[in-house]
Specification:
Blueprint: E1 2-6, H1 13-21, E2 32-36, H2 46-61, E3 66-68, H3 72-78, H4 95-101, E4 107-110, E5 113-116, H5 128-131, H6 134-139, E6 153-156, H7 161-165, E7 174-175, E8 180-182, H8 187-190, E9 196-199, E10 204-209, E11 212-215, H9 219-222
Length: about 220
Amino acid sequence: MICYAISDIHGSISAFEEALELVLDKLENPDTKLILLGDYIYGYEDNYAVLEKIMTLQYQYGTEKIIALIGNHEEMVCNGNWSINGYGFSDEKDDKYINWISKLPRYYTAGKTIFVHAGITEEAGEYWEYETDDFTFTEKYPAETGFFCENYKIVAGHVGTSEISGDSDFHGIYYDGQSHYYIDSTVLESGFLNVLKVDIENQKYYEVTAYGDVLIIPYEEEY
């Protein structure tokens, strides 16, 4: 199985469509999935366009192939703390989006790879699925690095890779060399979204580019 992952779209429909151009043709293969890691919205009118695009993709390909996870931004909408339009309270036209958001899962697993918006309770080891609370799945901060559990890898967004790396100019995929791949490009600053490709069977992780797939090496080895 091949899984592609995109995270933290933040209402940036143009960047989202550019990222989708790299993967949509590959979804015709029955053994592929696209996993979206949450934070689709961020106080912009394009929030509606992003949500519509994701819902349309799920209608076209099915929810088993297009997997959308909930992020903390979507959770704030469900809790009444944010509105989708970013300017006030939600209105009746938002009901269908809120209904959709409220059903989104908090994580997805494929083989030994865990896809999540923010993170998990890593000290629980292989029992993480039972020990991680809802808040941690969507709000965990700061980003955790280092060794998690033998053979497991965690793919997450939520915290920009520029912050994790400590390099304000870096927005690519951050691999800590052990158990974590972070893919939040801080799109409102960088203008692009990272696309991660995961070869589930062989546990190989690639950055998808217009020029081909590039095997990801640890940040500290590359920079």
